[in-house]
Amino acid sequence: MYVLVLASQKGGAGKTTISRHLAVEAERAGDGPVVLIDADPQGGLASWWNRRQAEAPVFFASRLDDLPAHIEQARAGGFKLVIIDTPPQATGLIRAVVERADLVLIPTRPSPDDLDAVGRTIDIAEEAQKPMVFIINGATKNARITGQAAIALSQSGTVATATIHHSVSFPTSGIDGRTVGELDPSSNSAKEIAELWTYVSTRLRKCVMTTP
Ligand SMILES: Nc1ncnc2c1ncn2[C@@H]1O[C@H](COP(=O)(O)OP(=O)(O)OP(=O)(O)O)[C@@H](O)[C@H]1O
Ligand SMILES: [Mg+2]
Each residue of 28-38: pLDDT tens digit? Predict the structure, then answer.
């Protein structure tokens, strides 16, 4: 079983959006069953899941104290993947959750403010000696700043080859607890999420194989 943690100290980078999209996409791709864990006391993921009709992915809202038991429960239950959403800013909590990760995903908007802030999240992953991947989220098509952001991030680590562009379908699909792929499987956003999962799942297998 793999444990993926979404982390960014910066608010609004896309942690919750990408958590739920990767969870649903992993199930669709046959890489489940998946447990989605909301470790953010704001409970954004929980609200989305409560609006959702489909049963998968399975959902837990976890306080830090419950997290180890919930991960063990998932392992014992035969789940293949756990995806954990974390809050912004709460350094201590983020650090404790990152300790549980096989791979840390760091979503970042392609803006100077976000790039300036990403160092604090990198520090957390590096202190925990966890592999990390940056995901550029909310990009505008053909904007030069997207390429510039990718270059800047690549100085500090690996950048996912799939970029997630801005699309109103991300919030719209959440109205009834769905994802962009469930709303319109042929949309560009759905394809981006599918590409992102292909990339992340490959990295995850490599990370776990190389971790002693
Ligand atoms: N690619 C995208 N295109 C359009 N809207 C997006 C995209 N990604 C995220 N959003 C929207 O941006 C807002 C912030 O996203 P999200 O809640 O996923 O960020 P977050 O990192 O979890 O924020 P927080 O730090 O507050 O937990 C949400 O309203 C979400 O619908
Ligand atoms: Mg969030």
Answer: 999 999 999 99
Please tell me whether the overall predicted TM-score, pTM, comes out greater than 0.90 for this model: yes
Closest CA to 65 of 34, 96, 36: 96
**Strand 81-85 relative to strand 2-6: parallel, antiparallel, unpaired?**
parallel
Say if ligand 1 is within 6 A of residue 9 CB. no
Q: What is the pLDDT of residues 105-121, one digit of tens each?
A: 999 999 999 999 999 99
Q: Is the CB of 110 under 6 A from ligand 1?
A: no
Per DSSP, what are the bridge partners of residue 135? 107
Name the nearest CA neighbour of 62 among 76, 52, 77, 72: 72
Rounded distance between C-alpha atoms, residue 80 and residue 27, angstroms: 10
Measuring from atom 30 of ligand 1, which residue has the nearest CA?
171
- The top-level CATH class assigned to 2-104+165-210 is alpha beta
* pLDDT exceeds 90 at position 211: no
Map out the domains of the chain as residue ranges.
Answer: 2-104+165-210
The whole-number pLDDT of residue 208 equals: 72
Which residue's CA is the closest to the ligand 1 atom numbered 15?
A: 14
